[in-house]
Amino acid sequence: MKPSRSSPFKSKGGVARILHAFNYSLKGLKAAFLHEPAFRQELLLCIVAVPLAFWLSANWQQFFVLCSSLVFILVVELLNSAIETLADALKPDYDPLIGRAKDIGSAAVLLSFVCALCVWAAILIPNYN
Fold this sequence. Notes:
The protein is mainly α. 79% of the residues lie in helices and 0% in strands.
């Protein structure tokens, strides 16, 4: 008989798995809020920008696209923070490869901002023909 390669910590599925996953997600959001200043700053940006998006949008579709671009920034920041946290846990001393990984994660956050700015510009700047 072949040994199982799955982790004993993995759940089997069902409603309990969904509830556990939701709880882990909330713990992750709380950890990011408590330990990541960049996440808090970007969350503040969203708190300011969502009402602005509501006010500037011509319809619900535009509002949701603008808000989605903001959520995209938060998602990329969460992934970047996860990479940085894992890197710091594995190798607290300076390592050029760890530094490169962190720089690449930071570049991803920058590109998420560029993407969001492009979305906002495409929706909010009138199309002159």
